[in-house]
Specification:
Blueprint: E1 3-4, H1 15-22, H2 25-35, E2 41-42, H3 43-47, H4 54-66, E3 70-75, E4 78-83, H5 85-91, H6 95-100
Antiparallel strand pairs: 1-3, 2-4, 3-4
Length: about 110
Amino acid sequence: MPRQLPQPSRDSTDLVTILAALADPVRLTLMRQMYLRTGATDCAALASEVDVTPPTISHHYRVLREAGLTLTMLEGRRRSVAIRHDDIEACFPGLLAAVLSPRSPSPEPP
């Protein structure tokens, strides 16, 4: 049976902490990858798409979880991660879509 790593409650999420977590390019990349997928994703699969060492990727996952952005589940040696969509939307409506949605290219000026 999977277990969850500790995370902040919905009521204790803080916008400044969330924005600080998203300010790092690696964490923003991880969050954008998760945002495009449904459900939990294997941490190793996401990590393979960024060029950082295993200890560094663990740090980035921890920062995202401690900011209240993600939920990490453990099942044996496997870890999976998911965005806490409902909690973030309840506290900060539209934030995830505004920050994580793929952007269309800006039109060229005339």
